[in-house]
Amino acid sequence: MIRKMTCRLGRHVSAVTTRTVQVRRFLHGDYFRIQPSIQEALVEGRPVVALESTIITHGMAYPQNLSMAREVEEIVTTNGAVPATVGILRGKIHIGLTDEELQFLAGSKNVVKVSRRDLPYVLSQGLSGGTTVSGTMIAAHKAGIPVFVTGGIGGVHRGGENTLDVSADLTELGRTPVAVVSAGVKSILDIGRTLEYLETQGVCVAAFGESREFPAFFSRQSGFQAPYHVHNEEEAAELIASTLGLGLSSGVLIAVPCPQEHATSGQVIEEAIQQALREARSKGITGKEVTPFLLQKINELTNGKSLDSNIALIQNNARVGSCIAVALSKLQKATKKGKLPQREDIPPSKPVVIGGINVDFIAKAQSSVILGGGQTNAGIVRRSFGGVGRNLADCLSRLGLTPLFLSAMGKDEHSESILHYCHHMVSKFKENLCQAPLVCIDGNVPLSTIQYVCQLAREHQLAVCYEPTDENKASKPFLSDSWKALTYISPNLQELRAINRTLGNPLPAELPSRLEDVVKTAMTLARPLLAQLHCVVVTLGAHGVLLCGKSMGGSIFLCPRAHEQSAATSLYAAHYPTIHISREETVNVSGAGDSLMAGIIAGMLANHDTDTCVRMGLLAASLSLRSYGPISPEISAHSVSLEQVKGRSWPEVKIWKMD
């Protein structure tokens, strides 16, 4: 049994009173804290470089670790990128650390070394720790950061063929699409077997610079050749862009040799490694404690030369990695600009969303039988942030469009939590409402606001999309002639029927359930609206989406100026089936329709063709169906993109002529 209790943050806030419920909270959004400056850079498409924190917590002693961390961030900034050091503080993954937080991690004695395996426990216990390569890659990917700089990755340990001691960094590279810039792998590892393992994982490995020699952390030579070779940051950026564009789930390893003047002799290091390994075995040191012990021991045996090399190579990696991130950002912007030509003096498109913002509480009892009489019913309560307008703005923001979101809000503890959660949508815009490429408005706002927006649309030829929200609110614009100024509406079948009822149009006796009958009914109800509207997007739930509008041969125009009101246009309907998701995979249906429209809008503003726009919407909807929140945190400009659409096979689209 699921009960949905909604507190609307507007003029009224409904009180929620329930019986005591034993709960645990599983809020995906609550696990992450992204520094506002980093979120702003990501939204604006500026280069960001992720940095790990185990080198701070476990790699060097205080205060050298702190000064090193500050220097690396400064190098990234100097080279034109934004540093995003990842760490875990009191059970939250922080993407971007303040100087105080850096000091805390650098000076703490009992923090955890956190890889993929450790994340659930560390977060559930509210602990703090430094993220390994694996842990940092996960955080970077979640935040949409494609480039990550570290010292060296883990690998197959010597004797790994017997102990099966293989770093999680290698498997993470095989399943997380992040480019890792490192000085190869530490020479304390089995480099040959590490390269073989990376090949098995499907990881593209390329040496950076003049030589194809795969570096061995402290030393520029390992005796092994990298599979591939990039000469400079532009070639590295092209390689990363190809990986992202193909939609591969694996990462890229860019191996950068330590600067010549700081590289230590391979023979000296090898002798120190062998002695350190013998001591580790004699002391029974195993697992993730091996690497910190070996590095410290090698530093002692080389009289600090290995530490000097360590710092130098990390600084060099930061310089190279930030230059690669800058080159990648320029490449991505150039590619996007090629798809959507713009004059340089025109600011990027920033849609406006006007609508509701809610706090939703969903309670699910563990038992299908609810006990009466005042007993406690064990279950789970989840809080999420909803509202059609908020969902649209959230999803558009995750797709990189920086929307301006306007909503009425109350003043209570829920409004504070919403402002914190929605910080990635907050920005300053010079453009006013009349300069927006598209205005989205939902049925939660007052009728007077809808009429005002429609009046502006008439006066300034604005494109306006109306999301009816629910059957009771769907008809607001249709109570007067305001609706004739709308460009798009996105109702479901029930909302479309309510709109026609308001307009006095004939209605079906009942709504059908068979797909063929559903499509026929939707076309009948959409037909009279298309005398004024440009396009009607009918959401059909599990049946998919039906696009109704003008066409010159079957492909429906989404952009109003595409056909210039040609006399040759006719009315068509196109049915797009959904991406199949099993009942077990489906977690939350409340934001799927909003994600669908956000994906379609993002495609339109990127000037994609109609099929691509709708399929971007279907991709976004499929991700949100799998998410506990209404809008999936997995939605991004990478996960919902032209490349992802082209990389999938799609069911057949059926076309009907409506005239």
Secondary-structure content class = alpha/beta
Fraction in beta strands: 15-25%
**CATH H level, superfamily name of the largest domain:** Indigoidine synthase domain
Please state the overall shape, judged from the principal axes of the Cα atoms.
elongated
Helix content: 25-40%
Number of helices: 21
Distance between the termini: 45 Å
Low-confidence stretches: 1-29, 340-347, 414-431, 561-568
pLDDT averaged over residues:
82
Radius of gyration: 28 Å
What is the CATH T-level topology of the largest domain? Indigoidine synthase fold
The CATH class of the largest domain, by name, is: Alpha Beta
Oligomeric grouping of the chains: single chain
**Which second-level CATH architecture of the largest domain applies?**
3-Layer(aba) Sandwich
How many domains? 2
How would you sum up this structure, described in words?
- The protein is of the alpha/beta class.
- The chain has two domains: 35-336, Indigoidine synthase domain (Indigoidine synthase fold); 434-657, UDP-N-acetylmuramoyl-L-alanine:D-glutamate ligase, CATH 3.40.1190.20.
- Helices cover 38% and strands 16% of the residues.
- It contains 21 helices and 23 strands.
- Strands 2, 3, 4, 5, 6, 7, 8, 9, 10, 11 and 12 form an eleven-stranded mixed sheet that branches. Strands 16-13-17-18-19-20-21-22-23 form a nine-stranded mixed sheet, sandwiched between helices.
- β17 (439-442), α16 (447-460) and β18 (464-467) form a beta-alpha-beta unit.
- α19 packs antiparallel against α20.
